[in-house]
Amino acid sequence: MRSVRHLLASALAAALTLGVVVGLPTAASAAETYPRPGSGSWEIQGRGWGHGIGMSQWGAQGAALQGLTHRQILGFYYPGTSVGSVGNSTLQVRLMAHQDTGSVTLWAPQGANRLQVAGAGNTTRTYAGGYVTVDRADDNRFWVRHTRANGSAGPVHAFTAPELTVTARNSDNDNLGAVVGSSSSRGTWYRGTIQLVRENSTLFDVRNHVALEQYLRGVVPHESPSYWEMDALKAQAVAARSYVLAEIAGNSAGLTCDTTSCQVYRGRAVVNRAGAVVTPQEFASTNTAVAETSGEVRTYGGSVAFTQFSSTNGGWSKASTRPYLVAKRDPYTGTAPGDTRTTWTDRLSVSTVEAYCPSNGRLRNLVITKRDGNGAFGGRITEARVECDTGNRTLTNARFDLFSEWWRVTPPPTGFFLSNTLGAEAEIVFQYGRDGDQVLIGDWDGNRTDTITLRRGKTFHVSNTLRGGDADYSFPYGRANDVILIGDWDGDGRDSIAVRRGREYHIRNDNRSGPAQRVITYGHANDDVLVGDWNGDGRDTLAVRRGSVYHVKNSLTGGDADAVITYGRAGDDVIVGDWNGDRRDTFGVRRGNVYHLKNSISGGDADRVVTFGRASDEVLVGDWNGDRRDTLGLRRLS
């Protein structure tokens, strides 16, 4: 059974102005409640850009800058996959700006002297100069209308075929691709061929049939900047090659697309009506990355792996359905210069969230109910709830047009900051109480999670959740000037209070008023006193400190100590906690904002050194998420 840890009683009194709840955090802890702000928006802190599954592109750049090869990068982000090889197959890419369209304009790039349009039965029409407009306005046919270079109308041809193939050719009859118009003066030049595929009597799709290696030239520089390290670009080339093949194998139509719904593909160049290049979409560095990894893929179980990737995972990848798409800490993401999306700030408007209210209701609270537990803030949001005057709605996607679903409302500058790991991040942040309240930490209801009780004079205000608002109950006990100790004195899993008067300890086994149920005498009146379960029997007992010497008792009795140890320095602040989850409390010493923690009742060097908060913060110790390990928290003054 777990017991709770505390500071020296003399260190517990501090003042702080506190007020409304601001928020909380992990899948295992209480919900984060964000009331509707009067300003009309919340200030947001976030991590990551995109879904965070598989390779982090900014992480690949960071890894390459640290000397990893592209295969090492891919091995890290897709553990369990192997290097494989494929041929240069032809892909069908849906051009999403031209789906279910009734008309499209096409022309030839510079270097080509004619445009060819081919239909069923080897029916081919050739158009020199100008452009063609294709539509399906009449008689369930494709109608191709030529406009000459001088602007005059050319011939009109009707094709009864279910699809047309369009290519631009030079005097040697080489296929130079074709241009698909995007405006009256611009278009995108694609390699391969353009396919116009009938959808119904009036609409059709525009697709690019292109060889895999040529396709990748139009993908890699638009997924990773072309100036990045070569091994980062090679990693992107292999990931993109693998991704598209696995995607196509996974859908019956055998299609991919050219947007972030698949992966970004922008063809060869943007050109003008004369076919001259205005903006290149392929670059020498990324062409090299594609060429030097030609045919290379990642495989798993004999098949090409579904190598998902995103801009940045924020420092921790997200698991998906494949065994090689795992959740893991990423030491490379956030290390590359220029990365502005591993951590970010933004603003979330009330109107964006309010749009999810049932029956167009008015938002009252946004509540984050679940996170995945991985990384800062308790990890990515996996479930949220909008509370409105018309009812509530549960959401499983809480991205709200932000860069990712890994975010929190910016915490206040003062309040309680609690960490679920012995690290630098505080996942639980909220405001609670009044000026002059004394903070006491304990598991008051036996649910294995520590929460906060506030003492005002001789009245104790107990909260069984880590939040602001009203206490769950209050009771008076002792005298206003008593020194208070907290512990599980009888091993029932619930913490209760004791008061110290000199060398006497008046103990209650419940949080109620009335006389003490037990009185013991131990140590000297001027000793520092510590509370902990030193032997793991589930009962808290006392230890007294004289300088750097600790006299530890394993029972609530007077007499001699059961163990005497020397640890730290006489001027150290001392904390007590079960740092490793072995059910035994041990000591830690605080020097500024550095904590030297021991995992045994012994002298010698610390087993772990942790930096947390500021030297001016009031430190708290507790098991905030019920995992049986004590971690740190702090209360910050303004």
UniProtKB/TrEMBL annotation:
Keyword Signal: yes
InterPro entries with a match to the protein in the record: Bact_Sporulation_Assoc, Integrin_alpha_N, SpoIID/LytB, SpoIID/LytB_N, TAT_signal
Matches recorded under Pfam families: SpoIID (PF08486)
Keyword Signal set for record: yes
Keyword annotations: Signal
Classification via SUPFAM superfamilies: Integrin alpha N-terminal domain
Annotated TM spans: none
UniProt domain Sporulation stage II protein D amidase enhancer LytB N-terminal: residue ranges: 205-300
Signal peptide: 1-30
Protein's name according to its UniProt entry: SpoIID/LytB domain-containing protein
Organism: Oceanitalea stevensii
